[in-house]
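Checklist before submission:
- one chain only
- standard amino acids only
- sequence pasted in full

Submission:
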Amino acid sequence: MYLRARELLTHEQRIDFMTIPADISEWEIATSYTLSPHDLEVIKRRRRDYNRLGFAVQLCLFRFPGWTLSDVKEIPKSVLRFIANQIKVDPLEFQSYAEREQTKHEHMVEIRKEYGYKNFSVREYRNISSSLLSHAMENENSMYLIRTAIEEMKKRKIILPAMSTIERLVWQTRHRAEQKIYKILSRSQRLEYVKKLELSIDCNDIHPNRLLQLSRLGARYEPHSFRRFNESKKYAILVAYLLNLSQDLIDQAIEIHDRQIMILQSKGRKAQEEMQRQKR
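Returned file contents:
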């Protein structure tokens, strides 16, 4: 149960993240897998065609989807052909390369050294989590946060870890964001302020989207349902709901006021027109 709480994706969604789409477009292939002059120079250092092609494929996979050749189970023929054509090698040579585990590992080490790629370590875990926290404060959506974490790792040239690790990172970061939001909202001296509706809280550190999400969450629950939450979460949701409710009531009051003014103006114009007709 504890571990399952950290599983944010279905099995199919995990596979989608680690798979190159079979129907990938020519534009996407060119964008993701075009080799630079420097790439071609590095690739030419390999002695055999299958080594050159395998090295090129590994380099390209680090860029998209971001995992190693061992993690990406299938490479579309269109992608393999595009990479092979750039280095003037027969795509069928890749079959010979795929059988050489030791060579694949050596090439991966060389690519890391040449291009500055690094493995996902505890230090990187903390750095990415710290970077992701601001996004989690803005939006709690799992898919959004996972994509954001993956893109951040790519920018930092981090070889992507297992999806389960990324899910755990996102789950923990989202949990930290929730606790931070609950703490900010529960500074309102809880029931004393709620009872008096004195909800003058500094919410500058909370993105409006997250306040709205918490408010909608509070609107879905019956009063007795709040008993199952811990104290900070309970009051944070309640305060967010009341803040949003008070703003809605203000907006409605302004709207009613505007309608009344329009009605009075309309009546005034009609009365004035009637008086002018009588004077004639």
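Reviewer check: The chain has three domains: 4-115, 122-185, 192-272.
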